Amino acid sequence: MSDSTTTVADLRAIIRDFVDERDWQQFHAPKNLSMALAIEAAELMEHFQWLDVDASRQLPDDAERLAAAAEELADVLGYGLALANELGIDVSETIRAKMVKNAQKYPAGEFRGRYGRDDPNYQGK
After folding, report:
1. Looking at the chain, which terminus has fewer C-beta neighbours within 10 angstroms, N or C?
2. CATH class of the region 8-89
C-alpha cells in the first residue's frame, strides 16, 4: 500500500479502528487531540533542531534518521486524522478550500520565490 493507492478515507478508518479497538475514543476530546498533535509536531521538529537548511535536506540520505522523522510525521498525521474523525471534518474538502484561500492571500505572481511581504525583494501591493 502506498500514497498512490491509499485514500484519506482508508487512513481515517485505520485510525478509527485503532482507537475503537482500545476504547480510546473517550480520551479523544478535540482539546486532547489538538494538544497531542502539537506535542508530536514538536517531537518531529527535534529531528531538525540543530540542522541547517542544507543538512535538513540531506535527511533522506540517512535511513535511520529518516525512519525516526517518518515515525513522528506518522504521529502528527495520525492525530490530525483522529481530530478530523472526532470533529467530522472532511479533510479533502477542507484542504482544497484552504488552498483556495492561500492562493488568494499569496498570489503566485507576487510570491514566487518570496516568503512574504516583508521580504526586501517583495514588489507587490
Report:
1. C
2. mainly alpha
